[in-house]
Design brief:
- By secondary structure, the protein is mostly helical.
- It has one domain.
- It starts with a helix and ends with a strand.
- It has three helices and two strands, in the order αααββ.
- α2 packs antiparallel against α3.
- The relative contact order is 0.09.
- β1 and β2 form a beta hairpin.
- A two-stranded antiparallel ribbon has the order 1-2.
Length: about 100
């Protein structure tokens, strides 16, 4: 701290202002990162819920008419979604009706 003591008042003020700016910048950057992580997770959950609702609506006829092929085709539409690895439709009895798995390479 001997170096700081020998600086002029102008240099000390400049140093303090610079140090304060760097600290505020680091805190702001951390806050932005946390907000982005929270928003990304929230958007992913909302997107998954929307897709589940759409698949549920589109597969209701397949369940009523016991058409496993149609249910599989409905689930195959999820291949465009890179975040989804496994999707399944269960009947009212709780048994697996149709399922699609993404091939992991």
């Amino acid at each position: 701290m001997n170096i700081f003591r020998n600086l002029s008042i102008r240099s000390k003020a400049t140093f303090i202002a610079l140090l304060t700016s760097v600290i505020v910048l680091v805190i702001t950057l951390f806050a932005f990162i946390m907000v982005e992580m929270t928003l990304d997770r929230h958007q992913l959950v909302e997107r998954a819920a929307t897709l589940a609702e759409v698949i549920g609506l589109n597969s209701s006829a397949a369940l009523v008419f016991n058409d496993r092929k149609s249910a599989g085709e409905t689930l195959a539409a999820l291949a465009a979604e890179s975040e989804i690895e496994v999707a399944a439709i269960y009947g009212i009895d709780g048994k697996l009706f149709a399922q699609v798995r993404r091939e992991v390479a």
